[in-house]
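Two proteins were folded this term; both appear here.
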Amino acid sequence: MKYKRLAQKLILAPRLILPARPDPAKSRRIAEVRLVVSCFIALAVFITIGVRIITLAVATEAASISPVPLASNTARGQIFDRHGRLLATNLPMTVLHADPSEIMDLDNAVRRLAPLIKHHDETSLTKLLRKNTRYVELDRKLTPRRHAAILQLGIPGVYFREGVLRAYPRGNVAAHILGQVNTQNHGIAGVEKSMESQLLAGKDVFLSIDVGIQAILAKEISTQINEFKAAGGAGVLLDIKSGEVLAIVSLPDFNPNHLGKISADARFNRATKGLYEMGSTFKVLNTAIALETGSVQMGERYDVAKPLHVASFTINDFHVFKRPLNISEILVYSSNIGSAKMAEAIGPTRQRLFMEKLGLLDYLPLEIPEIGRPLSPRHWKQTATMTVSYGHGISISPVHLASAVGAASGEGLLVTPTLIKRQTGDSPVKIRVFSTETTRNVRSMMRLVVSHPDGTGNLAEAPGYMVGGKTGTAEKVRDGQYDNKSNLATFVATFPVHDPRYVLTVMVDEPRGQKKSYGYATGGWVAAPAVKRIVEQAAPLLGILPVDDKLPEIRQKLRLDLQIGEEKKTLATF
């Protein structure tokens, strides 16, 4: 029995070890299901890879085309001078950029790229390409040769895109007025910023500036800066009737095509943002206010022989006059003492009111953001009134001065100044400040400052062009105190003075006395000669022809009965 059961187990053993023979139909169905599932898995993998490739391609394309997008698809408007001469335009350019995440061999890429990139060496380029970002700009303004050379390197992750370059074809000309744009083509200074919406809309801007006259101002003021070893200077030429600024210069200046190379000193606009005590040029305004208010009469005289003591201050004159001076002599000889006494007669309230009317206590509405707000006395008392009369204790910009003197020596109207060309039919805002009789008297005295042998502005005389003006020399304030080693030399002129049309202000910052000026660095020595040369060159461009100042029709427009000098005789000639 025992052996019988064992034999039965051995017979049944193959069935326990080997599985039953599968059903062919069932096996086919299982294989088909597995094949279909595998196909779906493979398809899903390919779809995922495809989507990823498309996403990366779109992202790369977006980064390469508009990582720094322009404000709009419309080309930025151009800027022209008053005669249609181009000052700012747009040029196509190529921008080199990279996606650091796609650069596989950083050291190799840097070694090959660095020699072809202007603004980076291997160290700075390595630092730039290690940034955790998808976009870094490597270079702008690629020349076709460099573009081709970089393209031939075939470095993954390095791309090119088309861009627009804001270009200033006249370099430094009117740079402070034009301003600049940033890498996104947005205005960051000057007219580029103030007229941003118009320029972005593709509309052109026409400035009141005449680039020819602008060049004359820059050249002649630069000459004085160099001759007198000065720190800088500024100039403004203003049309009295329209308020248009025909030229405006601040030196040192800069080339707006090279944004990264502009120093802080060059960027600063001395003509509109700089605030300075304008010294004796204020005597023009003081005289006009005194006459307009009736505080003084033309024949009135003041004793100026002794220094004037006011509170803890002492007012002195550059020259001592041992006899009383009349109103004309106070302006022609530039007497601080006489001006202070005239201002005392005017009084603080009326003086301040006229300063406000003349726009000397607030910002000027010029079309650039770089505008300075005047610094005026906090407490407008007797002392402030006297010092303001000769340009101390109040700080304004050269444009402020030109505008105010335009009212005092023109038709008596304050015209809102502008940097934008007036269109036909435009009516500038005009405010009556002085009567025509007051301005006629003032112009006549200003002419004597230049034409009289004892005047302080003889070096501004431009024969035939009838220049009238006033010198100004003021010590600069440093750390709350006047520095007698640093001064501003200024001259403000009106021409032709018998038929006033233009006001010219020239200021030289921190000139040093020279041998030819006998060591002086005053407005008469430093600024006046530039005025002469500017008028002689600019007047013909403005349609002003020289005249004979002895002609009756010329002489009758000015007062010839003004008494100058100890002999108390009227001046024989202007």
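Next, the second protein.
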Amino acid sequence: MVVACVRLRVRILWRIIERRATPMCLAALGLWVGLACGGGGALQLGLGVVLGASALSWVELRSMAVKRRLILLGALCAGCALSGGVLRFQAQQEVAPGVGTLTAVHGLHIDAFEGQLGIDSQTTARKNRTLDVKVRALEFSGLDFRVRCEWERPIFSQFLLSGAGAKLSAGTMVRAESLRGEDFFWADARDVKPLGGGTLFARSRAVVAGGFAQSIARAAGKASPLALALLLGVKDELDTDFKGLFQEAGCAHLLALSGQHLSIICALVALVGRRVARKERRVRRLSLGFAWLFVWLAGPSPSLLRAVFMLSVAEIGKTLDRPQPTFDLLSFAAILLALLAPSSINSLSSMYSFSAMAGLILFSPRLSDFLAPYLPTSIAQAFSASIAAVCGTAMVSVLTFGTLIPASVLSATAAAPVMLAFMWIALAGGLLAGILPVIGYITAPTLEFLQTVLTSVLAFGASLPALQLGSRLIWRVAACALIALMIALIYAVPWLRWRDSRRTMDMLDARDSYLRSGRRSPLFELQKE
């Protein structure tokens, strides 16, 4: 009986997927399921290739209904195979070919390496520097000799932690000497030496980003660390306690660069562009160009790439007169990120970004309709967005950290408009301060006041209790099951309301012969010729 019930539920679920889902959504689902399974990627590759080939081989031999099912199955298997390729790529990037053999058999140890920075150097809580180096040369040292290995292109990425040295931009060639460590290496700041400015593209980016950072600092005054963090993702000068407030209040996602920041850039460009270009298509393309420029300046973080990929695919769809649903855009972004940045697709920031966006797409409209009769429209929309984001990221937080902060709904709802006003003023002031330095006397006090208000809101959110589930996996899984049931209510409540209204109509039809005959109103009577 139980098996039959489960089989029936699976069949109903598959029919819903077959009727509403698109192949791109199924491909993204296969990608994330394969990444969640982990491993070396061999299982995902084998499953995807075998099942995908079996499905596609039968497409031409079936009817159209069966053909759609097999296409969806093929898309699911293609996403699973893509996840296998991503996992195998990450496994190859973790260890240099032959390095383990040299160090284990010949008793050598890595003394220095040279390479190019993949991203800008980041500052840790203890004011050290983290560098992600794409290694091109390694130097091994033994008892009385040294060995140097060079490659024409980077063969693997290496994580390096150094002292409080100078900030280095992406694309810079560096040499790290006197290394210590195994899983990651430590080097003193004086032993990390820049070899050159990298390519012209990287040098141009460093100059433009440095000039824009100075302009923001002039416009923001004492609030410049927060302005630089929100507009350029530079958190070097941000106070550690202030960053801790964001985490304790459950608002850490507001501090990370994401689609919200791109939307502000695009809105400002569109506001100015409509004064210059009258056609809406030109304004959209101009906004998209500035969005890519912002990603270039701030660095290609997973959340920013997800947002700009969605904007790009949406613009391509509108240009081809094939507008895509929002969830399809999110699926396109996941596939593109896996293809173009496979090392960061399953990072924690990427999972938070995609899960939060999926929660907004799936739950925000229904929650807004539910809250609309009880709250003003603007407040209902803000609350529904915060609750939807928490629903989307709750399982990630529980499984990763064993922590859930329900108060983040209140703190994020209250902090979002303050941060929105802060970013608008900081962006406008940063663009104008390069031409009119006097603008800082107006924008700096305003931004400092908004930072004080934001600190108060975060402190209130951090004072509210959080749910600590501990490190036991069974409690985390049980919490995820409870969260899934609560999320299901978002879809169950409207269905129950519809069922009650349907029963009421059936009762009225049973009582009244006039209604039962189908002539509920003369306006809806069929005209007989």
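The chain has five domains: 2-94, 99-198, 200-250+418-468, 258-344, 346-404+472-518. Confidence is low (pLDDT under 50) at residues 520-529. These notes refer to the second protein only.
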